[in-house]
Design brief:
Oligomer: heterodimer
Largest sheet of chain A: 4 strands, antiparallel
Shape of chain A: globular
Shape of chain B: elongated
Largest interface: A-B, 17 and 20 residues
Largest sheet of chain B: 8 strands, parallel, barrel
Mean pLDDT of chain A: 93
Mean pLDDT of chain B: 86
Number of helices of chain B: 10
Low-confidence stretches of chain A: none
Radius of gyration of chain A: 11 Å
């Protein structure tokens, strides 16, 4: 199992993660930042476990994040 | 007393250090952004909504005005945050919001928040000013206008008795100092295309500020470019003609630099404060201008020019008449290491060929330019006649170099 990690506080709400993977991401109307759907919070990071077949696209999403607040492990 | 009208000096604030620097420098007003809805989101630690109260309070206690910039592109999901920010500004007594999006204009109107039109709206003519008079009191003009064009707009405001929403004559704000954009402000997509980092969401990665080499893909030949920062304009500096700016009827002098350091904010604010006051009391002269230029030179700048005010077009600055008019430099290598104990520099050859005895030039970030001739060439630790792409060369150099400092070959202009 792989993980997406989102350092949400530095998110600038550019929307690219939602465009690339709407199954994992939403844009919060409350604060305009991206939200990793169904993730759990550990310290200041949001974590979501994903299946192996999602790794490649998730990595691309992370690469496209302009402020590099998405990581895939 | 002079005929100049009272004007505001508006300084950039990206941190509390800068805020206090602006106040000490003599600013009449400051502008700042919060959260991700401002044009410096990526480059500075964000001031938060919770900080608005402290900024407002600090400004009030020093009797200066505070403006909040909310001038990014905004999307549907940003509405709640934008409204929250503007409401907080209203509650805390921030003097105005600087914006460029129609949704934000509407929010300001509905919340009773005074509105200034951002330079991101590219206001370049009097009819646009007249349009925005229905909702705002101040318009920040596009940075690409000449002084004549600015003066025409301010004259027309008077002639038409063009009043803003508060009933006062419309006020014109222009940038007088700081960085300029290679694109018309607010129209640049370079960063977005290359890194998906939208300049218009405050995430500009400043691709334009990097050196580029231009290669002919058909032949592999590299074009000679005298100024390697081919997309990076020098910074705007108007300290030498502040009197002319004041005569043109501008109401607000704005200094760029929310992502710059506190000492930059202090130095620029202080110099322009003194220059404005000197014009007002009749003591504005060459000697003072030279002193201010020296002071401004000490803080962050990419070199200065007068911007578009005097009618020059972008690109003229890339030629530096009289500097190396009889010589050209060809890029060869970048610095990879410097050994301070033995004063030896190591360069990685990235293109071309270097031979012993050739005229070379080292251009270092901290060292300026130094012409050198290498009598012998040490290539990959061994004495050789020439070095080619991929080789590492070492030679004694008296000043510490930083990595990515450059090595060039000097040739005659027709060579």
């Amino acid at each position: 199992m792989a993980k997406i990690i989102h350092y949400r506080s530095k998110c600038i709400g550019c929307n690219i993660c939602f465009e690339m993977q709407p199954e994992y991401w939403r844009l919060s109307k409350k604060d305009g930042k991206a939200t990793l759907v169904n993730s759990y919070l550990k310290k200041d990071t949001h974590i979501l476990e994903i299946p192996f077949e999602s790794i490649e696209l998730s990595r691309q999403t992370a690469e496209h994040c302009p402020v590099k607040v998405i990581k895939v492990f | 007393m002079s005929f100049y009208k009272k004007l505001l000096l508006l300084s950039p604030v990206g941190s509390f250090e800068s805020l206090h620097a602006a106040i000490r420098g003599g600013a009449d007003a400051i502008y700042f952004g919060v959260e991700q809805l401002n044009m410096r989101t990526k480059s500075i630690p964000t001031i938060t909504i919770e900080d608005i109260a402290e900024v407002a309070q600090t400004c009030k206690s020093h009797h200066i005005k505070a403006y909040l910039t909310l001038n990014t592109v905004v999307f549907d999901y940003d509405m709640q945050l934008a409204r929250k920010i503007i409401s907080e500004c209203k509650n805390q007594g921030i003097d105005a919001v600087i914006a460029s999006d129609f949704a934000v204009f509407e929010m300001c109107k509905s919340l009773g928040m005074p509105l200034h039109i951002s330079t991101q709206a590219n206001v370049s003519n009097i009819e646009s000013v007249a349009f925005f008079a229905q909702m705002a009191d101040v318009v920040v003009l596009a940075r690409e206008l000449t002084l004549k064009q600015v003066a025409h707009i301010t004259a027309e405001i008077k002639r038409r008795d063009l009043r803003g929403i508060s009933g006062e004559l419309m006020k014109i704000e222009t940038f007088v100092h700081g960085a300029l954009c290679m694109a018309v402000s607010g129209k640049c997509y370079l960063s977005l295309h290359e890194k998906n980092a939208s300049a218009n969401r405050g995430a500009c990665v400043q691709n334009c500020r990097r050196p580029y080499q231009v290669t002919d893909l058909e032949t592999g030949n590299e074009l000679l470019i005298d100024n390697e920062y081919i997309m990076s304009p020098k910074d705007l500096c108007t300290i030498a003609f502040v009197d002319e700016l004041m005569e043109s009827g501008i109401d607000v002098f704005k200094i760029e630099g929310r992502s710059k350091s506190a000492e930059y904010v202090y130095a620029t604010t202080k110099c322009y404060r003194q220059a404005i006051d000197a014009v007002l009391d009749g003591s504005y002269n060459e000697e003072k201008i030279n002193h201010w230029l020296q002071e401004l030179d000490k803080v962050y700048n990419r070199g200065f020019w007068e911007g578009y005010f005097m009618g020059r077009k972008l690109g003229e600055w890339t030629k530096n008449p009289g500097s190396i008019a009889t010589e050209k430099k060809i890029y060869l290598a970048k610095a990879t290491k410097y050994y301070p104990n033995i004063n030896v520099a190591e360069f990685l050859v990235e293109t071309g060929t270097i031979r012993a005895g050739e005229n070379l030039m080292v251009i270092g970030r901290n060292t300026g330019s130094d012409k050198i001739v290498l009598d012998e060439l040490i290539v990959n630790g061994v004495k050789q006649a020439e070095a080619n792409k991929g080789d590492k060369i070492t030679f004694p150099f008296p000043k510490p170099l930083k990595s990515n400092d450059k090595l060039y070959k000097i040739v005659a202009e027709n060579g």
